[in-house]
Amino acid sequence: MSKASAYFTLDGLSDKHDVKAIKRELDTLPGVLSVSISDDSKRVAVDFDTTGVQTDRIGKRLEKMGYQIRDTKTENHVM
User: Fold this and answer.
1) How many of the other CB atoms lie within 10 Å of CB of 24?
2) I need a labelling partner for 54 at 20 to 30 A (CA). Which of 15, 26, 33, 73 fits?
3) How confident is the model at residue 12 (pLDDT cuts 50, 70, 90)?
4) Over the stretch 14-28, which tens digit does the pLDDT of each residue have?
């Protein structure tokens, strides 16, 4: 299993309802291991198994939910 983390800075993230909706939606993607969100910094961090999902698919899901991505950063982890 190859693991990575993706960090998305979003426009449109405004309240706890958004946080819950994003967590619920991203958790349905195969390979997503964890989702954490800072509504103060408007940043979503996703840890995932790269054999199940890729950063672009996660980003497309966020955009489909109506969020605009301002910045994306990905870190691959060597196990």
Assistant:
1) 10
2) 15
3) confident
4) 888 999 999 999 999
DSSP letter for each residue of the chain: --EEEEEEEEES--SHHHHHHHHHHHTTSTTEEEEEEETTTTEEEEEEETTT--HHHHHHHHHHTTPEEEEEEEEEE--
| pLDDT greater than 80 at residue 62 | yes
- Under a CB-based contact definition with an 8 Å cutoff, are residues 11 and 29 in contact? no
68: containing domain: 3-77
Q: How far apart are the first and last CA of the chain?
A: 8
Give the separation between CA 22 and CA 35, rounded to whole angstroms: 8
Instruction: Give residue 79's pLDDT.
Output: 61
Domain count, the chain: 1
